[in-house]
Amino acid sequence: FKHQDFLENTKFAVTWDTPYLLQFAIFPLLVFSDALPPNSTVPYSIVKLIQSTSFPSDMRMLRRRPFTHGSRPERYNPTFAIRTRLPLLFVCLLLFSFTTFFMWSPGEKHGRAIAKILGPDDDPLPAQLPLHKTDCEKGDCTNGAAPSAPHTNATVSTPPASVVASVASPQVKARPLASASLLFEEAKLVSVVTMTRRFDYMSNALNNFRQQTYSEKELIMVFQTDDDEEEARFLKLCREEHVDVCLTVAASHRLGYMSNLALEHSRGTYWAKFDDDDTYLPEYLNEAIWTIETHNVGLVGKLEVMFYLQSRDALVWRAIASKRNPIAYLQPAKYVQGATMVASRQLWESIRFNDTLTRGEDTDFQKRVAQKGHVILCTSLYNFIAYRRSHLNTHTWLITDEELMRKRAKFVSFGEGIEHLMDSSDFKLPYAPPSNSNPNVQVVTSDTDGFVSGKTSRLEDFRSRLGYTFGLVADVMTHASVSNNVKVVAIHPKKWKYQLEKEHIDVVLVESLWAGLAEEWRYKMRPGYVAPEIKGIVEFCRKKKIPTVFWNKEDPPNFKKYIETASLFDVIYTSHAEYVPKYLERVPHKNVFVMSFSAEPHLHNPIGCRRPKLHNLCFAGSYSAHVYPQRGRDIDMLLDASLDKGVTVYDRYARLPQYVNKTFPAKYKSAVVPDVPYEELIQKYKEFKAFLNVNSVRESSSMFSRRVVEILASGTPVISTPGEGLVKWVGTDGVWIVDSLPEASAAIDSVLGDTEGAYLAVKKAMRKIFRYLTFRGFVEDILSKSMKDYEKSGPFGATVLSRMKSTQMGRLKNLIESFSHQVLQDKQLVLVIDVVSGDVVDEVMSAVKSTILSESSDITVLVHSGPVFPFHIASSLCRLLQLADEHTTIRHHFITEFYPSYEYGPHFLDDQLDAFIYTDATIVGKSRHFER
């Protein structure tokens, strides 16, 4: 309840933020609210009574989010629900009568009110409050609601009528962000939460909020005090500074409680914690929200942090990442700096702060976030400076400056204070779009030999998800891969109709699965059985004209298990090409296609694979010899050959003793460890020198182990048993095929003895995978097969720029050969020849024609007779690009420069372009090279 006289002012004072049980119980009271007198108060005891009342889980009339303040709601029970409908109505009427009795009495008689609205001189608030700033900016402030505050010891401050008018005025809008329109199509509201007990730091907190260039934001301040005078000063400051929400709590409350209280009053899609004493530079929120929305994660923060040490007047860089990888930009992490957490409100609703901890509430929150399977991503070290004061006892993190500098830290500057950093370009966004006169290419200056660059906005299109939404029923691995290419709605068997009606779904993709993301689909697909949920989904989609796709990735062994389900769908993919005729016999259409396994470059990539390996060999999977006898023999062969070489076996059933037949024999016990989550296993791919693989299906032209493609894309060789589909789709580069114990031993010795040669073989496999076997290709194939107007995107090309003097024509042949031998098909060469004297132009053109034997649209030669090029590479490259752009058409969004005297291997261009797929770089180059 926002204020004492809420019943007089509005019938809908209980907002969607209130727990649904409270909303339901108070509903009859709201219907008759016009008859109640002003200045009425609902005692807190009534609220506690309502919150402690148990109702059936289907009676969620006003529910928007699940009730998270108590135990989890019980599962739906129709019999129990019917039996409790009449008692529920009786309880509602009883509560209405009981509450009305108290409301006719003065509120002060029954204890302190739940919350009190504050205005200048305690003037009452206007009857209608704006629900969102943008509503007022549009001129629509007529239908508003005050957010709920179900805590008796919190004082809430909201701007009075005059402030509401000024907020709606366009003269006082937040300063627009120059680059925001390029980063966000529609900015979503961010709730900035600042908690403090130090009034002197209020100005710093307000300044941090004001200078954020992110446009849609609100400020929520929580002040911790037991002093009435200090509380009055705080509330006065809130009114003067037009703070969106001001809360006061007793000094005894924990930070976890204060965080939950603030977020209960928030309205934003996202929330950010701002410490009162740190410095948040203007682009801080832009970077954080850009990271969340681009990478589709729930929580981001910083591991690399700039510290300002007051005792030394020094700026210090410190990495709280691992020793082996101190650079943590856009990397998953177990935790981030608490003062830099930015997350979605939806995440907080499911995982609230622990309000009983005296310290470490942020770490505890992040730990539970990770346990729930959410990804925590690191933003850059820019845009934030942590302030370390001289007195240690003024911090919650009790660490001295000496201890802070002891690990992974270095000084950046001395004696310059912190003020000069506020306008420093060193702390701007690393991805800020460049200003450029040419809309097709990015002008880049570099002193690196051999680089490829791409325009930032085009790169975002290249890497970002396609503009489609998939309704998805899949296991963890497929969900993780598909969600990196399109927006995904994970369809739940009990909520599918609500999800399909609420979301704009373009395609529904269902794969053959065993359990789903959280075991919710377990036992829903069985031989000869079609789950009613699947039938309902397909029928609903058919009425709404939404294409449905089924992918049976378990063919051929589980064809009979899934054929009844598959026959319902519009499009069918099978992992076993030989079964296409069998599907055509059983389904009423001809939309049956073959799709094997692929890699997802965002997850499976060679970043970090060249670091020193921690272990030798690894096998991940189950034994299952009773189901697949040949598989059991193959596993025995590989493990027998590798036991004395050092092997780790991740057993899928190690923690499930009931599956006795699927566990590994006792002789392998020393090597067996429990399985790890999929996201952790992906990192394990790069920690071993080689992986062992068994193909359960040998005689299939398209079916092979999924893990092979993922491991090869991660830069690790594979020692595998034979598989026809493996050789046909992936090839033998990077894969050692073995079928006997001697062959397995020899292959293991070869890989472990020549790791460099093994990597070069894997490199060949990576080229094929990133070109033809990615989930982006699978998703685009689904769209092209299920949507008539969809066209697949073509491969990316590159424009090669080069320059030479007329006195260097002997190098022309080497340049043309380096370009012509490039494996990349879509390429263009623009050569600028600098002629010192006009008399030799004809001679130069004659040499060019004799070198370029046949006319080619891929090669353009420009003869430049102006001033000689500057020697400095940065200046010459800019001039080179300018000339090329003035006199010809640069066809591609990726550009590079070839030196005529250098040699470029056939895969130079396609290797460089591949790196743009799995990194977020705008420039890709080589740090090492060969010299002849």
Major beta sheet, specifics? 9 strands, mixed
The level-1 CATH class of the largest domain? Alpha Beta
Counting structural domains, the number is 5
**CATH architectural arrangement of the largest domain:** Alpha-Beta Complex
- CATH fold-type name of the largest domain: Spore Coat Polysaccharide Biosynthesis Protein SpsA, Chain A
Question: What do these coordinates show?
Answer:
It is a single chain. With 932 residues, this protein is an alpha/beta fold. The protein has five domains: 6-110, no CATH class; 174-427, Alpha-Beta Complex (Spore Coat Polysaccharide Biosynthesis Protein SpsA, Chain A), CATH 3.90.550; 469-594, Rossmann fold; 615-773, Rossmann fold; 798-925, Spore Coat Polysaccharide Biosynthesis Protein SpsA, Chain A. The protein contains 31 helices and 34 strands. Strands 1-4-3-2-5-11-7-12-10 form a nine-stranded mixed β-sheet, with helices on both faces. Strands 32-31-30-33-15-34 form a six-stranded mixed β-sheet, with helices on both faces. Strands 17-16-18-21-22-23 form a six-stranded parallel β-sheet, with helices on both faces. Strand 21 (548-552), helix 19 and strand 22 form a beta-alpha-beta unit. Helix 2 (20-31) crosses helix 4 (78-103) and helix 21 packs across helix 25. The longest helix has 26 residues, at 78-103. The protein is globular, with a radius of gyration of 32 Å. The protein starts with 5 loop residues before the first helix and ends in a 7-residue tail after the last strand. The model is unreliable at 1-82, 102-183, 321-326, 411-450, 455-459 and 868-874 (pLDDT under 50).
